[in-house]
Write a structure and sequence with these properties.
425 residues; Enolase-like, domain 1; 2 domains; 8-stranded mixed beta barrel; 17% strand
């Protein structure tokens, strides 16, 4: 049992220079934990509410002083002096205090800050690494493997200037056995891509929100083909040594029932065929949000069309929401979950989402957000909950590297290998 004695919060800046929330939880033992919560640019409509101040005179309305005030005010008054038997006990109290389906009263960026900082304080109190605490807190065994990274190479959509419709093409170091090997492989591919960008587009290696290169490709296919060229340029065999993943983010170009991926607009069936052609023509082994978040009628078609070829990964579609995941399982819409804790608002709800996906035989990719911080808790979470993959961003920005470096630390401490690529169903 842990007793909270103090909660503090402050506004800090994320990787895009926008405000986000930092929270510190102190326990009666004197142990404390501080966390920084991320925020997204590409957000699903069903995500828990992230509160912004709305004052145009300050950060263009993006300040988070109101969310900070919820932590330092109502949440501190309700929780200080209270004892909790478990992480779930605290989180259920947070959920009850908020009292809404989408955290719209006390808001997700405040509630999550408390949930996470309490977890880090409890790990400090127990004297164990955060990944061991996060496994034990939810009755899990640490699986003694590290998540395989999927790493941004090229970016478009909302992560860049919208110069191409799809959001990201990512590198999957498929043959790597260790995190160290995966990072060295990715470095070589990224440098080949940077040279290609300079030679073909005359661009310096300016990067997008998550660190990916952002040349002015004229189509999604050109962007994916450039990824293949970077793999071969680095001396690797596409589909054997290194494969690709594609974050389509289709909701952002779905307009009045029609998809606009570049070229002629298409209906849902046409979009399924467009996405399937990428999996056939290129070494693409994961497709994220291949259809719009509310196009429920056609997601089963997408899964069937890609079955045995790629992961059919839900991000905006599922929003780490247990109810949406249950429906997607029933209707056979996907076979993989992109898990983002701030989409749902507490560790306990995210753990439920993870458990549901696992019980259905799905793969799980634990993901960062476009607005990140130097905090590395995500790496520990991905290890603790047995993430098959981790999606952090590219290798060119410190808020991303903090998490990659944490994975390298855990590897050095444990000697655990990378998780194998999951069997596709």
């Amino acid at each position: 049992m842990a007793t909270i004695t103090a909660l503090r919060a402050m506004e800090i800046l994320d990787s895009r220079g926008r405000p986000t929330v930092q929270s510190t939880c102190t326990l009666a033992s004197g142990a404390s934990g501080t966390v920084q919560v991320p925020s997204g640019a590409s957000t699903g409509a069903a995500e828990a509410l992230e509160l912004r101040d709305g004052d145009p005179r300050r950060y263009g309305g993006l300040g988070v002083r109101k969310a900070v005030g919820h932590v330092a005010g109502e949440l501190r008054f309700a929780l200080a002096g209270q004892s909790f038997n478990s992480q779930e006990d605290l989180d259920r109290r947070l959920i009850a205090l908020d009292g809404t389906a989408n955290k719209s009263r006390l808001v997700a960026n405040a509630v999550l800050a408390v949930s996470l900082s309490y977890a880090r304080a409890c790990a400090a109190e127990a004297g164990v690494p955060l990944y061991r605490h996060l496994a034990a807190a939810f009755g899990m065994e640490v699986p003694q493997r590290l998540p395989r990274p999927t790493i941004n190479l090229f970016s478009g959509g909302k992560h860049a200037g919208g110069q191409v419709s799809i959001q990201d093409v990512l590198v999957v170091p498929l043959a790597a056995r260790t995190m160290d090997e995966a990072m060295a492989t990715t470095y070589a591919v990224f440098q080949a891509a940077a040279k290609q960008t300079k030679d073909r587009f005359g661009m310096r290696t300016l990067v997008a929100d998550e660190g990916g290169l952002a040349p002015d490709f004229d189509s999604p296919e050109a962007m994916i083909a450039a990824g293949v060229e970077a793999i071969t340029g680095a001396g690797f065999t596409p589909g054997v040594d290194v494969a690709l993943a594609v974050d389509v983010a289709s909701s952002h170009f779905f307009i009045e029932g029609t998809y606009h991926p570049g070229g002629a607009p298409v209906d849902a069936e046409g979009m399924v065929e467009r996405v399937a052609s990428w999996a056939s023509a290129y070494p693409v082994i994961s497709i994220e949000d291949g259809l719009a978040e509310d196009d429920w009628a056609h997601w089963p078609m997408l899964r069937e069309r890609l079955q045995g070829k790629t992961l059919v990964l839900g991000d905006d579609f599922l929003t780490t929401n247990p109810e949406r995941i249950r429906r997607a399982i029933r209707e056979r819409c996907a076979n993989a979950l992109l898990l983002k804790v701030n989409q749902i608002g507490t560790l306990t709800e995210a753990a439920e989402a993870n458990t549901l996906a696992r019980a259905a035989g799905w793969a799980v990719t634990v993901s960062a957000r476009s607005g990140e911080t130097e905090d590395d808790w995500l790496a520990d979470l991905a290890v603790a909950w047995g993430g098959d993959q981790i999606k952090i961003g590219s290798i060119t920005r410190s808020e991303r590297l903090a998490k990659y470096n944490r994975l390298l630390e855990i590897e050095a401490e444990t000697g655990w290998p990378l998780a194998p690529w999951p069997t596709l169903t």
